[in-house]
From TrEMBL:
PANTHER family: NICOTINAMIDE-NUCLEOTIDE AMIDOHYDROLASE PNCC, NMN AMIDOHYDROLASE-LIKE PROTEIN YFAY. It comes from the Bacteria. SUPFAM superfamilies: CinA-like (SSF142433), Molybdenum cofactor biosynthesis proteins (SSF53218). This is CinA-like protein. Residues 4-174 form the MoaB/Mog domain. Pfam families: CinA, MoCF_biosynth. Belongs to the CinA family.
Length: 411
């Protein structure tokens, strides 16, 4: 199925508003086994009509975002009706919804809002519980030319995303005649290079009939996408899990930080972090997860040696003898965070992010990570990420979270 996305809005081309709709819709479509063939962004006004006219001649499905509001430059409905040779009519249901929206807010409704009730004749109104502008679905039978189905969706994400989930996937599945025996699984791995991952898995995965495989490499992570019939996907999932059981973060697309929070919750453990070179990146990722407050107690950022000494009790003798970036200090940091916070497990990070500050013995990119668990002897591991500061912090925080994950999963 040839699917195109048309994003409308001058602000998207000026750069004042980031255009994220194409990426988001593309990710949603891939879950159905569908692909975006083309994405176009145009400013408000006349270019919208021209872009719609061009797209409906090529595409089986056109998804348009934006331009459904009450202002004079919101012309998506008008442009679509003109391009498809359909009259606009006032839809009673859409009008009632718009009026009711303002009534519930106890706000005056300007007459300009009435244009939001104008719908191409024969189209279906898509409810918008999060805004005034209803969406519109034009089945392929309505077009005077090529049989292209058109979805008109609002621009604001808080309106677009719920409307998409409620109104679009089931219609696309019907149009594409997709079988219910079709699914996508996204598996995330860490601690393995992309080339090694490919070399070990390409041949056996390609031997599974009906399976589509996709890879995406990120810093310290490899994502594997499996698409196909249920039996093929499950066969591949089992194969990959058995090949890299200890490196599998999740097989449902969950991020590493969510996996850690879920594991902590399952064990009824609390976590504390203490960071130097990452400046709170580990704690930030943990607190990005809903429910983190139930399992995360303290996030110490002890950048200076004095902070390591005064806040979490790292011995000044250790700091002077071994230096802040050392196995001994990483262990002491983790243990100090554990005791100070009262948590069940603590992770520490201390390293040299660069670009300066390195030495022959401790080059830029060196990092020590420590783990302390109640009742056990703390330990530390060394890693090396000779990257720019941003990449270094991301990879070091990934390694720290993975150490916590491994500890939580160990017997």
């Amino acid at each position: 199925m040839h699917i195109e996305i048309l994003n409308t809005g001058t602000e998207l081309l000026l750069g004042t508003t980031q255009n994220t709709h194409g990426a988001w819709i593309g990710q949603e479509l891939i879950k159905l086994g569908l692909r975006v063939q083309r994405q176009t962004t145009v400013p408000d006004g006349e270019p919208v009509r021209e872009a719609i006219k061009e797209s409906i001649e090529r595409a089986d499905v056109l998804i348009v975002t934006g331009g459904l509001g009450p202002t004079s430059d919101d012309l998506t409905r008008e442009a679509t009706a003109e391009a498809m040779g359909i009259d606009l009519i006032e839809d009673e249901h859409a009008l009632r919804v718009v009026v009711e929206f303002f009534k519930n807010l106890d706000k005056y409704m300007a007459d300009s809002n009435l244009k939001q009730a104008m719908i191409p004749c024969g189209a279906e109104v898509l409810p918008n519980p999060n805004g005034t502008a209803p969406g519109v679905y034009l089945p392929p039978r309505l077009g005077k030319g090529s049989p292209c189905a058109v979805f008109l969706l609002p621009g604001p994400p808080r309106e677009l995303y719920p409307m998409y989930h409620a109104e679009v996937p089931h219609r696309l599945k019907a149009l594409a005649e997709l079988s219910d025996d079709h699914e996508m699984v996204e598996m995330k791995f860490t601690g393995i290079g992309e080339s090694d991952f490919h070399e070990a898995l390409d041949s056996p995965l390609n031997a599974i009939a009906g399976l589509e495989v996709g890879y995406c490499a990120r810093p310290s992570e490899v994502d594997l996408r499996l698409i196909g019939p249920h039996a093929a996907v499950e066969s591949a999932r089992t194969l990959v899990t058995n090949t890299y059981p200890d490196k599998l973060i999740s097989d449902d697309g969950s991020l590493l930080e969510k996996v850690v929070v879920d594991l902590l919750a399952a064990k009824k453990w609390n976590l504390a972090t203490v960071e130097s070179c990452t400046g709170g990146a580990v704690a930030s990722r943990i607190t990005d997860v809903a429910g983190a407050s139930e399992v995360f107690t303290h996030g110490f950022v002890t950048y200076a040696n004095e902070a390591k000494r005064d806040v979490i009790g790292v011995s000044e003798d250790l700091l002077n003898t071994h230096g802040a970036v050392s196995e001994q200090v990483a262990r002491a940091m983790a243990q100090g965070a554990l005791e100070t916070s009262g948590a069940d497990i603590a992770v520490s990070v201390t390293g040299i992010a660069g670009p300066g500050g390195g030495s022959e013995e401790k080059p830029v990119g060196s990092v020590w990570l420590g783990i302390a668990v109640k009742g056990e002897t703390p330990y530390a591991l060394k890693s090396f990420y000779p990257k720019d500061r941003a990449a270094f912090k991301l990879m070091a925080s990934q390694r720290a979270l993975d150490l916590v994950r491994r500890e939580l999963r160990s017997e």
